[in-house]
Amino acid sequence: MIQRPAILALSIESLLVCFMLIYAAWYGRRILEKWDLRSGSELQLELERRTYLISVILSYTLVFQILSLFLYIFTADYLHSLFTGAMCAAGSLGVNGFGYPVLILKIVNCLVAGVWLIINHVDSRGYDYPLIKPKYELLNILAPLVLLETVLQFAYFLDLKADVITSCCGSLFSTEKHSIAGEVAGLPHGPMQLAFFGMMAVTAALGVFFCMKGKGGALFSIFSSLTFVVSVTALVSFICLYLYELPSHHCPFCILQKEYGFIGYALYATLFGGAVSGLGVGSLMPFTSNPSLSKVIPPIQRRLVLVTLALYLLFSLIVSWRMLGTPFRLG
Amino acid sequence: MNASLHRHSNILDFALSSLLRRKSKNISLLVVYTLIVFVIASLIFFVQALKREAAQLLSEAPDVTVQRMVAGRHDLIPAGYGEQISGIRGVASVTPRLWGYYYDKFFGGNYTLLVPEKKLVEPGNIMIGQGVARSRKIKDGDQMVLVTSRNAFLPLTVRGIYPSSSELVSSDLIVLSAEDFQAMFNLPAGQATDLAVAVANPREQVTVAAKIAELFPDTRPILKSEILRTYDSLFEWRGGMMVVILATAVLSFIIFAWDKATGLSAEERKEIGILKSIGWETSDVLLLKFWEGIVISLSAFLVGFVLAYGHVFFYSAALFEPALKGWSVIYPQFRLVPVIDAYQLSILFFLTVLPYTTATIIPAWLAATVPPDAAMRS
Amino acid sequence: MIELTNVTKTFNADKHNRFTAVDDISLTINPGLLTILKGPSGSGKTTLLALIGCMARPSSGRIRLHGIRTSFFSDADGGSFLDITSLPERFLTEIRRTTFGFIFQQFNLVKGISALENIMLPAYPTGEGQAVFRQRALELMELFSVSRHAASPVDWLSGGELQRVAIARALINNPDIIIADEPTAHLDSKLSSEFMEMVGTLKAQGKTILIASHDPLVYDSELADAVVGMRDGRITGIRGAP
């Protein structure tokens, strides 16, 4: 199985990113131990040079990880024809116990990498590398996560057996099934719509409040993350129904297919982008009192909030447009 | 925002001039890079297109094909089975099929002899595929002689040759009448090669197949979806095998790229030293290296992609012919339908640009972290 | 004004070939004046220039800049100072780009590109539009009478012309302080005097100039306000103001 070009591509990417991050984390530990900005010693200069390398590595990592997330879903979708009962990615991922965990890990790693880059950007604006420690501590969390993801991904692909009968998204996300997916799909539409649009509105309000008054950043961050979760739930629960114009098709993966104009990509891209920016705002909150950053952080946070608002707005607009533009109506 | 754009465009400007100044090194890199992209892209396009063709063709396959197994091998099936099968609920129709293989001793090559469901030719006449015509060097109206299973000569007149556009299916095909088929292979009465079963509702295919297997334990019902899946696997496997071999090539390419990137000439090193000393920061030099990498990657990717497209879709992957001929002497000449999608492009990207970029990260950083006062010292 | 306090720079500190280029130097460079660092080669002049010009970090000691303006620090009234001793490279480089202009001993122009492009290079990462600094570069070339060589690759230029292109490059970002390391080392007397004339012009414009040289034509010049003698990384004596 491992020979398929797509799987080979994903495996190569995972290995490369893994090696790069382990390398980065190794040096990160050294930096945490020996960092002393006051000293002009050669060791310190060497460490400062290294931080450049690590930033570059992380930037590439984020880009590669985002691409690999989509490639992974696409590959799972592509492979569905091999498994009896699978109609789309949802089925392929369910063939063994590794498929979904890998997906979740990939998403988490993208978010963490995104937040790292935001923190790194802020760190470089401070004249005394104020966030060096939090940065490399976060790296120490990210590297093992990516390692875990790589291992699980290999396990998933190696364990793919074509004769296993798996479920198609129709049954996975069917409201009769007693599973998480089923429960989510089965959530009542009215309250869910209220929850979704409500959360979006609250987040928007908090964001505007922050931009004007500069207060409530932490609250905004929390709400933007909650909105992310609610939006994903809403996608499965009712948004997909409008996109497919079918009262029972809840699958969140089929919208990535050509038949639906690849609208899934637009939706997920905006949602994730918004989630990362929102998280970024929250991650910077503990450091606003830092002397070297006190002037730097607020404008950056404002920009992040605006990004979140813009992306979430775009998401909501796309959803509303599709909901209103179709003759299909939920009862 | 504006300042950032200016910075990028200025540095991109310098990156281009920098690349042009070191033509020999960059051209050799570009050539190798393009070659790698070309080979991998050709492979991906070719396998992809073949799969599409096969899937299209096989969609015409019967919903369930029933074959009889004797001692684990495919044997003839009594047409009588078909009557009982048509009684199963959900079965729309059952058609006995007559087909077989013929090995031509004189000219070499295996032909597929087939009796179509609707009568297409009278006894004594046949229709053949391009591959047969080429190997026997015959044309429409000529006579062809086959040797029957009783060692008798059977002369047949060619009444039509299938067009090249259908070569992938028909290349080795000989379509004949049921009478001639019988003369060739002398099958016992009431026997067929297999049964084609049509099932009205696709969801019931599995149930019907199960019932057939229950009814006739000596048969093997094959679902259309299974055939598709098997072909899918086969293509991927073969294509994948080559990719593994190519992995070696990609690895060598990575090492080559690394070597080129680290092997900065004294001139280049001095130039970066000068840049650092006049006010370029490490991240500015890193940006310079980034843009250089992008320009090279994009050029190689585009050129390699276009060449592969031409190779596969205009020249029918001529370079792969030796590896893919397989067991057949008759190799169909065909024109593949171009089918490119974003998925293939991203796989190509992951197998080529990604390794190159990773290989050049550390050399770029090493070059960029030259201390600014080094230029003063030399 | 630039203030150095007990500045030391040691190379290869942990190795057997440990070498102290600058040893416990305290010095003040005053604005608007021409200061000369005089001493034989190996006396640490180049290293000291690098330290003052934000190109290197001292191993110990402190360096303070007074009266400079950057995007992250403004000192309009001259009361406070910026301690650049532990600044990350990013900030150091930004200061260097906007405040200092360098003229190197070997001119250090990039071969293979035109004189104009060489002059524009320091402005590339600043985020200014190319049209803007291109205009400035052309004006500088006009000022130094090398306009006709704008498109010529620097490989074709004579020694004197190279010198003027190097000076033009140092001025592209309108720096307040000019630093020159052995500028007359490869020049004949005529060109050397021409160089000192240009220094005079720059000084008249209010720029602070710092030159390291062991050429008597330079350190005995009337324009020099302070001459700092150096030997083995230490100051041997200061003649003239601080």
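Residues 1-163 of chain A form one domain.
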